[in-house]
């Protein structure tokens, strides 16, 4: 019996790890933009959704052209279409909705961010319809058993991918010239400009990279859950934001840590809260955990777990 | 038009009203009193109901305006207070607990309850600014909705997703607002009665909000909004002033919620979603943050436009046999575009606040403001 | 005083906007046209289902008009006014008033329980009959309104049938229940729980999700830990589809059972291969088995495309209403309400009779199972 309890616990940890990796994938995009602009790009979740939708359309076309293509190639094709589409979208959003307001009161870009989010959701609804769209089972679904728990190829891939992306992003920011310019811009736009950094271009580049990540995240999410929907980005975006704050916003490793922690908190919370409280609370409060974590972090450690204390940020 | 676009172009032919405020006041009072009958006769009872909702949203917008417009704290979970007010009304005036208190007793309880929650939300978020605050309030709004949706077990507090039904209508001096009455040979349906009730509360709220704006507290809020550090340096107790803004805003929300519950007779958590919060934010942003007439205009426009858009659909159905472009599909899209466009091109709203205008026009405005501040500091 | 000016301005603008609507709202003279309202969400996430409802009612009305209807010795033409309540309780009451303003004598709708209940008060006050094709919350007919009817088994009826079927026929011993915390899902799940317990089923887990969720791994793992052999889900296909997939992924061997929210084509699309073996119920009899069912399906699909969910119920609701008008020989609401209570009609969804509350009497519930990627009839339980 104890063995079984352990098995279930391992399974919940794996559930949390996979869910957390998904949050982390989206949170990385949030944290990049926030790190540089100190702006919550509310629309980031929606960019993720657009990525999934565009990829699905491309996958549909590819499968129509040649039904013999291997699944992996088709999905890769979808991702390759979705990435430039989202890059263009991210670039446009920044240029149209955020750049003109860079010196406006903080409330202004936040409101346009909400506006952009509404626009993208409804535009997606007009283009792709209101129904949930199913994602064809193209990726390998092989199941493995580890320590009495189940894990699939796709789940392993998602976890590995999120670590790989985090790693390359870290390399980009810490080791490349572009990354150095990004860090300079994040510290002080004015000084960076004096040092010969083209701040506008750096900010555009940040949005473009963040949106490319969103495209990948979107495809992974909809491949994993087997569906896509115009509303899918919103909650995902909020959770990912909570994850980014938990880890320390602006910090790449923090986004990863925050995502994984939030995923595990949600999985363990939803799995055990009913038994712990004797049925008083239950899994219906799963979404509440993320918000409680968010509020608690902001109140007790506004800089997050790995973030450095920055005055005036929180 | 001066920079900031502060003035509404004067309507030709109405000069006599601008010259004589008292005449304008009387005319306005007559117009407001006759409005339901005019609308009812011209457009039907359903539009009187729309008018009722316009007033309810005005009440909400006035409340949120205190938090967002005056104090500059973006609250994306405002609808939670509306929900709390509505649920308090339902608890105290429905068969759910078998309580049937009169509305004049419940409304203050509901408003106070919501106000208390306003402080509870405000307290932990005092240190947060701008976007962090927005996200936390959004989370708070969702938490309240999720709790309302789930508290039918272990004890049945809210009846969960099924909602609470058979809520008592408002009743004044034995006259129930739940049914039509004959007055001087005219049939007065419930929607008309609620119109006058809501109008009374809205006018009261307008009065309170305007007095608040010009009060010491109102100026403290403005200082807080413009620069929190400077405000603190000037001796403003930013903590208390913030909490007060949250509490005041929430109180109006709770009041509106109670009225909503009595008016509808049925409430369920689906009436209190995040989008309702965002809708109210849209209203005040569109109308003009911080400016009561602007906020009222925003509430009126965003309540009426979706209803008017209905006819666009009917028109398409009549002329083309089907709805080619679904107007309410476009509605949300247009809201989004409006939000972005307003921020880019007219950040102070359709009717910007005088305060903002004063800040933008250098001449006598600032001097006057400085004088006012000087006198105030002596008190 | 300056602000008063703005106030006057705002009121004027509102009045102008209101005035613009008037021309479009111009009412035609009623004469011998009898107006019937149909309300469902025609915008928002449920558009396809709402449209389906309206089309079902429209088809019936067109057929009746084509056949000719005579009431009180005068030929009468029926007109269906379709309205959109956006699945929003507040909009529902506005729409109800709008229909009453237009002088409808009866309403077929609304689609959701959350909109049907607040609107029913308006129809009750006006004394006109309301027949909902799809609202299943028990509370709708429990308000004591004599004018409120529905043609679909309510949550209690369907939940009871499902609960008894799970324990009696499927032999479930340890049952886990999940609901999506909507009025529909929670109502159905609670009734299922009651019924399953009453016939000796053991509820080992009661889990919850929401109607926007996609990840159920945590609750399903918990259910696996409790050793459930049957999972009942009260909710709709967008959650049910991924849930079926995730059950397989976690190696949870329990059977998935659902209500009419799962019994549709989209569920099979979303669940893919994992839909195989899932069982779900639908109120009424299978359309193909009903006299006139096949013809209805052919006619409807030729005109509006595939049936989504509730079109046959809206179609039956319209017929039940007109039959009552015929028996009353009048379109006068009070007489129609009285006649409706005496309904005994053979519809495409089954025989229809109302009890004193306005619920269908002895409504049949049919069980379906996914076999080879399609819903196939298992059996009909009474």
Structure description:
The complex is a heterotrimer of chains A (314), B (379) and C (382). By secondary structure, chain A is mainly alpha-helical. Chain A contains eleven helices and four strands; from the N terminus they run ααααβββααααβααα. In chain A, the strands form two sheets. In chain A, strands 1-4 form a two-stranded antiparallel sheet. In chain B, α2 crosses α3 (45-70). Chain B is mainly alpha-helical. In chain B, a hairpin with a 2-residue loop joins β3 (171-172) and β4. Chain C has 382 residues and is α/β, with parallel strands linked by helices. In chain C, the strands form three sheets. Chain C has a seven-stranded mixed β-sheet, with helices on both faces. A six-stranded mixed β-sheet of chain C has the order 2-3-1-4-5-6, sandwiched between helices. Helix content of chain C is 46%, strand content 21%. At the B-C interface, α2, α3, α7 and α12 of B face α1, α3, α4 and α7 of C.
Q: What characteristic shape of chain B results from the CA principal axes?
A: globular
How would you sum up the major sheet of chain B? 2 strands, antiparallel
Most extensive chain interface and residues per partner: B-C, 70 and 58 residues
Specify Rg of chain B, calculated over alpha carbons. Answer: 22 Å
The fraction of residues assigned to DSSP E strands of chain B is: under 5%
Helical run tally of chain B: 15
Q: What structural class is derived from the secondary structure elements of chain B?
A: mainly alpha
Mean pLDDT of chain C: 87
* Strand tally of chain B: 6
Mean pLDDT of chain B: 83
- In the predicted model, the low-confidence regions of chain B spanning at least 5 consecutive residues are 1-8, 360-379
Q: Quick one: biggest sheet of chain C?
A: 7 strands, mixed
Proportion in helices of chain C: 40-55%
Q: Look at the helices and sheets of chain C and give the structural class.
A: alpha/beta
């Amino acid at each position: 019996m104890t063995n079984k309890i352990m098995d279930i616990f391992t399974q919940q940890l794996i559930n949390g790890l996979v869910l957390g990796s998904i949050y982390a994938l989206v949170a990385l995009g949030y944290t990049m933009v926030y790190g540089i602009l100190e702006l919550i790009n509310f629309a980031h979740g929606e960019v993720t959704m657009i990525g999934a939708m565009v990829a699905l359309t491309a996958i549909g076309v590819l499968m129509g052209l040649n039904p013999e293509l291997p699944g992996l190639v088709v999905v890769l094709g979808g991702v390759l279409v979705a990435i430039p589409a989202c890059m263009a979208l991210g670039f446009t959003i920044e240029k149209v909705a955020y750049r003109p307001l860079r010196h406006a009161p903080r409330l202004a870009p936040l409101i346009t961010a909400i506006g952009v989010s509404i626009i993208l959701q409804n535009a997606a609804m007009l283009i792709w319809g209101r129904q949930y769209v199913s994602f064809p089972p193209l990726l390998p679904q092989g199941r493995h058993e580890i320590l009495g728990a189940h894990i699939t190829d796709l789940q392993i891939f998602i976890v590995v991918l999120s670590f790989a992306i985090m790693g390359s992003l870290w390399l980009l920011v810490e080791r490349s010239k572009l990354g150095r310019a990004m860090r300079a811009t994040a510290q002080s736009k004015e000084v960076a400009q004096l040092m010969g950094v083209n701040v506008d271009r750096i900010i555009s580049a940040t949005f473009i990279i963040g949106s490319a990540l969103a495209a990948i995240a979107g495809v992974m999410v909809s491949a994993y859950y087997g569906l896509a929907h115009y509303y899918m980005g919103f909650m995902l975006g909020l959770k990912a934001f909570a994850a980014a704050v938990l880890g320390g916003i602006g910090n790449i490793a923090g986004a990863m840590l925050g995502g994984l922690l939030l995923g595990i908190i949600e999985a363990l919370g939803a799995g055990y809260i009913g038994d712990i409280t004797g049925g008083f609370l239950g899994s219906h409060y799963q979404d509440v955990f993320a918000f409680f974590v968010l509020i608690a972090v902001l109140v007790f450690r506004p800089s997050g777990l790995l973030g450095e204390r920055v005055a005036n940020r929180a | 038009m001066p920079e900031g676009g502060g003035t509404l172009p004067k309507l030709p032919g109405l000069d006599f009203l601008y010259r004589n405020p008292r005449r304008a006041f009387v005319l306005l009072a007559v117009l407001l009193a006759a409005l339901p009958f005019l609308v009812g006769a011209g457009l039907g009872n359903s539009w009187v109901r729309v008018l009722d909702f316009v007033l309810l949203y005005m009440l909400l917008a006035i409340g949120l305006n205190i938090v967002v417009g005056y104090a500059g704290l973006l609250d994306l979970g405002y609808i939670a207070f509306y929900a709390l007010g509505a649920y308090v009304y339902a608890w105290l005036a429905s068969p759910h607990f078998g309580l049937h208190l009169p509305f004049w007793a419940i409304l203050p309880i509901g408003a106070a309850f919501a106000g208390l929650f306003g402080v509870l939300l405000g307290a932990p978020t005092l240190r947060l600014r701008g976007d962090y605050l927005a996200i936390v309030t959004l989370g708070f709004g969702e938490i309240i909705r999720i709790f309302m949706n789930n508290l039918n077990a272990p004890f049945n507090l809210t009846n969960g997703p099924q909602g609470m039904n058979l809520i008592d209508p408002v009743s004044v001096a034995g006259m129930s607002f739940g049914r039509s009455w004959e007055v001087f040979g005219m049939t007065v349906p419930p929607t008309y009665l609620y119109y006058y009730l809501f109008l009374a509360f809205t006018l009261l709220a307008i009065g309170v909000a305007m007095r608040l704006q010009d009060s010491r507290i109102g100026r403290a809020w403005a200082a807080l909004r413009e620069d929190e550090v400077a405000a603190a340096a000037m001796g403003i107790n930013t903590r208390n002033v913030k909490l007060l803004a949250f509490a005041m805003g929430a109180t109006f929300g709770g009041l509106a919620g109670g009225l909503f519950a009595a008016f509808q007779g049925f409430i369920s958590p689906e009436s209190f979603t995040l989008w309702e919060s965002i809708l109210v934010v849209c209203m005040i942003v569109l109308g003009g943050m911080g400016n009561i007439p602007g906020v009222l205009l925003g509430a009126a426009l965003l309540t009426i436009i979706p209803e008017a858009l209905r006819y666009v659909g009917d028109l398409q159905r009549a002329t083309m046999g089907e709805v080619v472009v679904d107007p309410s599909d476009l509605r949300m899209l247009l809201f989004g575009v409006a939000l972005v466009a307003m921020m880019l091109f007219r950040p102070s709203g359709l009717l910007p606040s005088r305060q903002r205008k004063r800040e933008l026009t250098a001449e006598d405005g600032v001097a006057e403001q400085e004088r006012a501040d000087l006198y105030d500091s002596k008190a | 005083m300056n602000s008063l000016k703005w106030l006057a301005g705002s009121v004027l603008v509102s009045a102008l906007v209101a005035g613009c609507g008037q021309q479009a709202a111009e009412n035609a003279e009623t004469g011998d046209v009898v107006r019937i309202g149909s309300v469902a969400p025609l915008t928002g996430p449920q558009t396809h289902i709402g449209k389906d409802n309206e089309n079902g009612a429209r088809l019936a009305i067109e057929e009746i008009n084509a056949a000719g209807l005579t009431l009180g010795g005068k030929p009468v033409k029926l007109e269906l006014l379709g309205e959109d309540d956006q699945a929003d309780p507040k909009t529902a009451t506005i729409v109800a008033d709008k229909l009453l303003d237009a002088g409808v004598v009866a309403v077929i709708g609304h689609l959701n329980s959350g909109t049907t209940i607040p609107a029913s008060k308006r129809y009750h006050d006006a004394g006109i009959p309301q027949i909902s094709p799809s609202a299943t919350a028990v509370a709708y007919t429990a308000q004591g309104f004599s004018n409120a009817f529905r043609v679909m088994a309510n949550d209690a009826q369907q939940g009871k049938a499902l609960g008894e079927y799970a324990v009696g026929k499927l032999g479930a011993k340890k049952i886990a229940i999940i609901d999506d915390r909507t009025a529909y899902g929670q109502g159905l799940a609670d009734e299922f729980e009651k019924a399953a317990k009453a016939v000796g089923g053991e509820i080992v887990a009661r889990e919850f999700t929401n109607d926007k969720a996609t990840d159920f791994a945590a609750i399903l793992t918990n259910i696996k830990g409790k050793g459930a052999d049957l999972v009942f889900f009260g909710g709709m296909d967008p959650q049910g589809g991924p849930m079926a997939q995730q059950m397989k992924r976690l190696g949870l061997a329990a059977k998935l059972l659902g209500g009419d929210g799962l019994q549709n084509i989209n569920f099979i699309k979303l669940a893919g291969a994992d839909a195989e073996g899932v069982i779900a119920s639908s109120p009424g009899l299978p359309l193909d088995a009903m006299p006139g069912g096949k013809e209805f399906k052919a006619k409807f699909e030729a005109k509006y495309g595939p049936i989504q969910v509730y079109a046959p119920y809206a179609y039956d609701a319209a017929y039940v209403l007109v039959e009552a008008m015929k028996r009353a020989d009048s379109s006068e609401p009070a007489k129609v309400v009285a006649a409706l209570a005496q309904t005994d009609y053979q519809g495409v969804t089954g025989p229809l009779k109302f009890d004193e509350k306005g619920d269908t009497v002895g409504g049949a519930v049919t069980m379906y199972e996914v076999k080879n990627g399609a819903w196939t009839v298992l059996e009909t339980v009474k």
